[in-house]
Write a structure and sequence with these properties.
Helix content: 25-40%
CATH architecture of the largest domain: 3-Layer(aba) Sandwich
Radius of gyration: 23 Å
Strand content: 25-35%
Oligomer: single chain
CATH topology of the largest domain: Rossmann fold
Number of helices: 10
Mean pLDDT: 90
Distance between the termini: 31 Å
Shape: elongated
Low-confidence stretches: 292-298
Largest sheet: 6 strands, mixed
Amino acid sequence: MNVVETSALRKSYSGTEILHGIELCVPCGSLYGFLGPNGAGKSTTIRILLGLLRPSDGEARVFGQDAWTDGPSLRARVGYLPGDVRFYGGLTGKATLDFLAHARGVDVRAEIVRLADRFGLDLSKRVRSYSRGMKQKLGLIQAMMHKPDLLILDEPTVSLDPLNSEALYAELREHSQAGRTILFSSHILSEVEALCDWVAILRDGLIIEQDRIDALRTRAVRRVEIKLKHAEACGAFPQGLRVIRHRDGRVIGGWTGPITNLLHWLNNAPVEDVIITPPDLEDLFLAYYSNSEGRGGL
């Protein structure tokens, strides 16, 4: 079952199209990364899913309901952290969360205490005295305190230190294991790779890739360095090995595809030594953005 589904989703502002037919499917219980640089259309897509923007064309459905017409009822099941979170500075952290909980009509006092302890946030201070990182923690608590079925986070680790980022990752994994769904946008590939089981790559308002993270890894590049026993050529290199340099019996290149194919070739080649690095998803990501035709250049 998909918690989020969009079909031919488009959004225009003053005649300029920002989203060009988004097709997004977010499975129930998944940790889903929404990748793309600033300006790719991530935040616009999220606002449509929340029912805060009306699409120009196409469909956006959350829990099987229309995100725009059923927005008020859907938002009761959703937690949201905007990319630029802001609160009234005159209230304390506790008063802010109490007010938001009252607006939702839920008693989440115990969960607020637990999350504040996990993120190390002093709720007795006024928000105006908070640092950017503290405000980000407050935003995360308000998004998660009611244990939403769908948690939507826009750049959630902005201003967080490494320890709090790890605490957030652990919290999100626990949400997913409990059957809840997390969709978060990011332009930091390393955190998506460490956390997510699904990823979509957005470029210029269009999804150019959407797959499980392990499937993307099979298409990502491994750096390969081979030392041959003899300097002379060892025959044809296997398909999937892009040779960057081959001189004096040393071969340096990149491998794309199932690693078993490379290991089979190495087993039958006059190899003295070999170094194979883990797949580099950053190279794959950059390849999508450096190639104007999307998939065609991979």
